[in-house]
Design brief:
Helix content: over 70%
Order of helices and strands: HHHHHHHHH
Distance between the termini: 49 Å
Structural class: mainly alpha
Strand content: under 5%
Largest sheet: none
Number of domains: 2
Number of strands: 0
Radius of gyration: 22 Å
Shape: elongated
Length: 210
């Protein structure tokens, strides 16, 4: 159990730094997720396995398993469609890819969605308040919350929350229409958004130290 935990922890660590240290140290060019590993990637994993005191095949299998687990989670959460997931699974299981790129890609997509979601919220809130998105971002970075800015502009926070909810519903409907998510997933996302709405409008960033 201890050895298994160490392998899985290292697998996760490799995935986290894969786009920077690992990729720059082991390949001479860009590599798409799931592509066959470069010729000098296997020696790198061999060195990692040696550090752990295990066979390289054990580490490689752990990396594959971690990639498949992450893929299953992404499918269950509706972040990846079944057709695309099937192709990714085939590449991982066939040995064409060790799963590192898959893990990295899933994390990147998750971060992109978070950033996109934050931007959409700021755009919606700014429109409801009657200021530009850049003006709202500036005030948020200075330590104010959306509620603070709305109050300063004489706008009811309930009106802002109504606008945020309506815009979120529109984005969810657009995603369903585009086939990106199904209605069940959209419903869960909107329910989660409603639960977090008060936190979203009242959240404050730490003001920069002067």
């Amino acid at each position: 159990m201890k050895l298994k935990s160490a392998v899985l922890a290292l697998t996760a660590a490799i995935g986290v730094v894969g786009g920077a240290v690992w990729m720059s140290a082991t390949s001479t060019g860009a590599q798409e997720p799931g592509d066959a590993p470069a010729a000098n990637e296997t020696p790198f994993l061999d060195r990692v396995a040696e550090k752990l005191g295990i066979e390289p095949s054990v580490l490689q299998q752990a990396v594959r398993d971690a990639g498949l687990d992450a893929l299953d989670e992404a499918v269950a959460a509706g972040r990846i469609g079944d057709e695309r997931a099937a192709k990714m699974r085939e590449r991982i299981e066939s040995g064409e890819g060790l799963g590192l790129g898959t893990l990295k890609k899933i994390r990147e997509q998750r971060q992109e969605r978070k950033e996109h979601g934050r931007g959409a919220i700021i755009d919606s809130a700014a429109s409801a308040i009657g200021i530009t998105s850049d003006e709202l971002r500036t005030q948020l970075k200075a330590g104010a919350s959306i509620a603070d800015v709305a109050a300063a502009e004489g706008v009811s926070i309930d009106d802002v929350k109504t606008a945020l909810t309506a815009d979120a519903a529109t984005r969810a409907a657009d995603a369903v229409a585009a086939g990106k998510i199904d209605e069940a997933r959209a419903g869960k996302l909107l329910a989660t958004f409603a639960e977090r709405l008060d936190d979203i409008v009242n959240k404050k960033r730490a003001a920069p130290v002067k």
